[in-house]
């Protein structure tokens, strides 16, 4: 203190470069943004608070504001919670260092690179997108899809399409007269492993028939005729339908495409290929659709920042007195009670720091949303930082509105800054 009082000019010389940088990089941009937010898009006409009014009345900015609030509430809480769980669990595993390294590794990836990675992860095509590949694999394990979803009858043939997606044969079925149910539309590659179609045997005591792919390799053959080399469509459900629409009997085609229905039930009915035969294969979840795009992007953010939270919390956990934890266990507390009533309260100041840090960080999220969300659903995933860019430098070219969004982001940061300042003061008092 004596040095400061004796040589104030020396103190000023040391502080001057920092103050100049602070003014040039922080104070001046904030002041200019506030001033610019009071003018129109061209910057020549003073409009007062009109830009802020537009911010809360424009559908795009209101959606961006609501999504930003979702980010502030969900993303930091989930990342901090996972970081806490990982930090506690890594104390009990042998390969704790390796586990921490793997979890923390995404922090080394830029937001842009992470966005590209998760754009591929969330790809709709299960053959390309990892998330849908896993979902489809699990779904198909418990509920198999239709084997021939692309099959359909020839135009103007005897098989007519119905409203429910089934196909009905116009000619009534007769016992002893094998029915022909030809279909097309199946890719030759999909039917490559199928057996050759065989004509059904004429049985006076049954209604028989064949369902097959009416397409001969090389393009030869006649329509509605089972030609050599044409493939059978196995697993097709064939129903005998009465005039009132009720199903009298049903059968499934075998490996050679043939089926058989009892004559006492099926004679005189109409044969129908059930709609379930042509249900499109399950294609997974539309991760980047309007409903799930924001949770999907938040998940990618948590993947990146959970490691950051884990490392900070693990450092704080290492400073927790082990005697306190052991004393609680000796007194009969189980691990959940030790975690909830001792570990978490002791880590509460650190958890607050991590939570506030991530809350400030999510206000600046731009890259992930811009890269991951496709153009069709980017408006549904919009956040304030992205809307600032779109308004100022995108199609809107309205830097007045963009500056108003920047001022709003600053206002949203102020409560978090106040929380940090109060926490620092409390730490100094201790």
Tally of DSSP β-strands: 8
According to CATH, the homologous superfamily of the largest domain is MetI-like
The helix count comes to 14
Strand order of the largest sheet: 1-2-8-5-6
- The second-level CATH architecture of the largest domain is Orthogonal Bundle
Shape: elongated
Q: Element order, helices and strands?
A: HHHHHHHEEEEEEEHEHHHHHH
Please identify the structural class as seen in this structure: alpha+beta
Mean pLDDT: 87
Alpha carbon gyration radius = 34 Å
Number of domains: 2
Strand content is 5-15%
Kindly, what is the distance between the CA atoms of the first and last residues, rounded to a whole number of angstroms?
A: 23 Å
Give the helix proportion (percent range): 40-55%
- The CATH class of the largest domain turns out to be Mainly Alpha
How is the CATH topology of the largest domain named?
A: MetI-like fold
Q: Unreliable runs, pLDDT <50, ≥5 residues?
A: none
How is the main sheet built?
Answer: 5 strands, antiparallel
Protein name: Integral membrane transport protein
Subcellular location: Cell membrane
Membrane topology: Multi-pass membrane protein
Pfam families: BPD_transp_1
Model description:
The protein folds into 2 domains: 37-127 and 288-429, MetI-like fold, CATH 1.10.3720.10; 159-278, no CATH class. The protein has helices spanning 2-6, 8-36, 50-57, 59-89, 96-104, 111-121, 130-142, 263-266, 293-318, 322-330, 335-362, 367-372, 384-393, 399-429, and strands at residues 159-161, 167-169, 179-183, 206-213, 237-241, 247-252, 258-262, 270-273. With 430 residues, the protein is of the alpha+beta class. The protein has 14 helices and 8 strands.
């Amino acid at each position: 203190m004596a040095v400061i009082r004796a040589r104030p000019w020396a103190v000023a010389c040391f502080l001057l470069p920092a103050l100049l940088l602070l003014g040039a990089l922080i104070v001046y941009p904030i002041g200019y943004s506030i001033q610019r937010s009071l003018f129109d898009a061209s910057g020549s006409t003073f409009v007062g608070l009109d830009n802020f009014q537009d911010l809360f009345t424009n559908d795009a900015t209101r959606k961006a504001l609501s999504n930003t609030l979702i980010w502030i509430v969900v993303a930091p809480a989930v990342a901090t919670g996972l970081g806490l769980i990982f930090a506690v669990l890594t104390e009990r595993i042998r390969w704790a260092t390796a586990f921490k390294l793997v979890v923390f590794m995404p922090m080394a990836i830029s937001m842009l690179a992470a966005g590209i990675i998760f754009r591929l992860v969330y790809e709709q095509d299960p053959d390309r997108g990892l998330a849908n590949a896993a979902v489809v694999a699990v779904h198909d394990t418990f509920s198999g899809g239709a084997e021939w979803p692309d099959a359909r009858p020839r135009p103007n043939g005897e098989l007519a399409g119905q409203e429910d997606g089934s196909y009905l044969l116009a000619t009534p079925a007769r016992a002893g007269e094998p029915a022909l149910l030809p279909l097309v539309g199946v890719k030759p590659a999909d039917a490559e492993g199928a057996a050759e179609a065989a004509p059904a045997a004429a049985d006076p005591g049954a209604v028989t028939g064949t369902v097959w792919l009416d397409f001969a390799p090389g393009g030869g053959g006649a329509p509605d005729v089972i030609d050599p080399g044409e493939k059978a469509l196995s697993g097709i459900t064939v129903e005998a339908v009465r005039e009132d629409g009720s199903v009298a009997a049903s059968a499934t085609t075998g490996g050679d495409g043939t089926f058989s229905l009892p004559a006492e039930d099926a004679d005189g009915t109409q044969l129908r290929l059930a709609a379930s035969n042509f249900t499109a294969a399950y294609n997974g979840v539309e991760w980047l659709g309007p409903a799930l795009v924001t949770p999907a992007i938040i998940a990618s953010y948590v993947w990146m920042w959970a490691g950051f939270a884990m490392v900070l919390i693990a450092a704080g956990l290492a400073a927790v007195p082990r005697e306190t934890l052991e004393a609680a266990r000796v007194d009969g507390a189980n691990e959940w009670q030790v975690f909830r009533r001792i570990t978490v309260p002791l880590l509460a100041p650190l958890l607050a720091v991590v939570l506030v840090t991530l809350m400030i960080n999510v206000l600046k999220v731009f890259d992930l949303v811009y890269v991951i969300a496709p153009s069709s659903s980017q408006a549904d995933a919009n956040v304030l930082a992205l809307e600032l860019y779109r308004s100022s430098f995108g199609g809107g070219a309205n830097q007045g509105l963009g500056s108003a969004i920047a001022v709003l982001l600053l206002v949203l940061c102020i409560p978090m800054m106040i929380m940090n300042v109060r926490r620092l003061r409390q730490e100094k008092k201790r």
